Amino acid sequence: MHHAILQAAAQLRAMYPPAPPEPFAKTLIGIFVGTLLLALLFYVLERMFPEQPHQPAIREGMKTDAIYWFFDFFVAQRLVGAASILFLISLVALKMPRLTLLAHQALWLQALEALLVADFCGYWAHRMLHEIPVLWRLHKVHHSSETLDWLAAARVHPLESVWNKLATLAPLFVLGFSPKITVFFGPLLALYPIFIHSNVRWRYGWIGYVVSSPAFHRWHHSADSEALNKNYGGLLPIFDFLFGTANFPKTGKPSRYGLAGEHAPSGFWQQLRWPFRADASAQ
Questions:
Q1: What radius of gyration do the chain's Cα atoms show?
Q2: Residue 58 class from Cβ within 10 Å (0-12 exposed, 13-18 middle, 19+ buried)?
Q3: What phi, psi does 61 have (nearest 5°)?
Q4: Residue 283: pLDDT above 80?
Q5: Beta-carbon contacts of residue 71 (< 8 Å; ≥ 6 apart)
Q6: Please, what sign has the CA dihedral across residues 51, 55, 56, 58?
Q7: Which of 253, 237, 254, 255 lies closest to 245, judged by CA?
Q8: If we measure between CA atoms, which residue out of 170, 42, 185, 54 comes closest to residue 107?
Q9: CB neighbours (10 Å) of residue 195?
Q10: DSSP single-letter state for residue 22
């Protein structure tokens, strides 16, 4: 078994050559500059097209979400990366069957197919976060923000990040997609979840039934009874309409956000421990 693991690790290294490490100072500067640019962009968008016009720019819980934002870059993503590597090594070591047909297609076609597969898997992974009590304990941290803006997207428990990554990585790996396809949709999948959490009222018109809009996703965060456990799609709402979990009224907007019937602890470390407390009840 030890030999199989080493062989699997070598095989994965050949398939996914590691990128040369960036100097820490360069990475640090890039993260801070990128954060400032995003903060400026969303400040303008949320002031010009607000869904909640009277929402303050500096809101309660923003400090906690800012900690999540930088924690994700410096800690959570490394945890996700390590878990992904161990998961793929396990798949290879256990000789999980892997298709090769798709890898011979043009990269742009693979990217479109992989985007559809990833969003389908993301829909079910997200739905399971709501419907399986032990997973809901993790996911309700993300739903605990009672005020939504772009930074609220960062409030994600690191173990939920691992779950989401593995739920989409495994099917893409088994189906044989080239790792190069991430060049096409990697930035989109990184930035779009931030955008759809923003305090922006856009619905996209008829396109909003094809691509998830901020208005569509904000209903997912509503604490209104008719909106609970709806709108799981992160990019394509088609799966919500197909599987009966869509809630996208043509008029009106959510009256309140957050959790129905409970409140999360206010601090970052308290929220990380919250899913493991005995009193962390299921939905």
A1: 20
A2: exposed
A3: 90, -5
A4: no
A5: 158, 268
A6: negative
A7: 237
A8: 185
A9: 20
A10: P
pLDDT digit string, tens, across residues 45-62:
999 999 999 999 889 899
Q: In Å, how far from its chain's centre is CA 106?
A: 27
| pLDDT tens string 214-230 | 999 999 999 999 999 99
Distances from the Cα of 57 to the Cαs of 24, 53, 147, in angstroms?
31, 10, 11
Share of the chain above pLDDT 70, in %: 90
Cβ-Cβ contacts under 8 Å for 17 (sequence gap 6 or more):
none
C-alpha distances in Å from residue 198, one per residue of 47, 144, 149: 11, 15, 4
> How many CA atoms, within 13 angstroms, populate the side-chain half-sphere of residue 193?
20
**Are the C-beta atoms of residues 220 and 232 closer than 8 Å to each other?**
yes
**In angstroms, rounded to a whole number, what is the distance separating the alpha carbons of residues 177 and 114?**
7
Could you tell me the pLDDT band of residue 16, with boundaries at 50, 70 and 90?
low
**Single pTM value for the model:** 0.90
Q: Give the span between the Cα atoms of 63 and 73, in whole angstroms.
A: 16
Which residue type is seen at 103?
A: A
Least confident of 1-10, 52-61, 215-224, 263-272: 1-10
Q: Which amino acid is at 3?
A: H
What is the phi/psi pair of residue 222, to 5°?
A: -70, 145
SS3 60: coil
What tokens appear for 222 in the block?
A: 């509503």
Residue 78 sits at the vertex; the CA angle it makes with 137 and 178, to the nearest 5 degrees, is: 100
Distance of CA 237 to the CA centre of its chain: 15
- Positive/negative CA dihedral, 78, 193, 245, 50: positive
